[in-house]
Specification:
230 residues, alpha/beta, TIM Barrel, 9 helices, 41% helix, binds pyridoxal-5'-phosphate, Ala_racemase_N
Length: 230
């Protein structure tokens, strides 16, 4: 079994290889280490190896880790990548740097209202459902422009980009078409909002494809921290 530092290096190598194959600078693709269900000690190990951006899915679990690591790992950027219920929005507004899963105006307004004034605005990605699966959260692509317009003016938030979780399929062509659809939508939105710089897509199994389709931030859990217990 490799150490977390070794696994991290392998993921950086995969990102660099994928970027090189499509002529992109590797520095254009960030790595979000997804530490959900993993102990704070694993986050600290990745931090010691240079990792600074971490993604979490469960608000209370994340807040416990954020508090535990506040003094030893002070410059971690915490990203919420799991679904967000209104009753947890205050905890999120007070503890996170980013939320990738905004898909309703009501949640965006609550996050903006609840963001403490002494903190920088909360960075936001709108989650888009590119597969059209009814069970999935996220906006339909056609709804993105209208929500972006409303979110862009909220003072506690900073709209940074789009995020998606494509269909769970092994068919690379289906995946590619869904990832490219998000990339095209992102490019159209970035013309209107030049501040948008984050296209959050790609996970352990599909990060090369996501990089080839324009991802600027891959979210990788298993390939860094090992498999998760269900
Ligand atoms: C768990 C999770 C990931 C990481 O998935 P791996 O397959 O473990 O790399 C990425 N994005 C989201 C939204 C997740 O929930």
């Amino acid at each position: 079994m490799n150490t977390i530092a070794q696994q991290l290096q392998l993921v950086h190598d995969r990102i660099a290889g994928a970027a090189a194959r499509c002529g992109r600078p590797a520095a254009d693709v960030g790595l979000l280490a997804v530490s959900k269900t993993k102990p704070a000690a694993d986050v600290a190990a990745a931090y010691a190896a240079g990792q600074r951006q971490f993604g979490e899915n469960y608000v209370q679990e994340a807040v416990d880790k954020i508090k535990a690591l506040r003094t030893t790992c002070p410059d971690i950027r915490w990203h919420l990548i799991g679904p967000l219920q209104s009753n947890k929005s205050r905890l999120v507004a007070e503890h996170f740097d980013w939320v990738h899963t905004v898909d309703r105006l009501k949640i965006a307004q609550r996050l903006s209202d609840q963001r403490p004034v002494h903190m920088r605005p909360l960075n936001i990605c709108l989650q888009v459902n590119v597969s059209g699966e009814a069970s999935k959260s996220g906006l339909a692509p056609a709804e993105v422009a209208a929500l972006a317009e409303r979110v862009d003016v909220l003072p506690g938030l900073c709209l940074r980009g789009l995020m998606t979780i494509p269909e769970a399929t092994d068919d690379p062509e289906i995946l590619r078409s869904q990832l490219l659809e998000l990339k095209q939508l992102f490019d159209r939105m970035a013309e209107k909002y030049p501040r948008l710089d984050t296209l959050s897509m790609g996970m352990s199994n599909d990060l090369e494809l996501a990089v080839a389709c324009g991802s600027t931030l891959v979210r990788v859990g298993t390939a860094i921290f090992g498999s998760r217990n269900p």
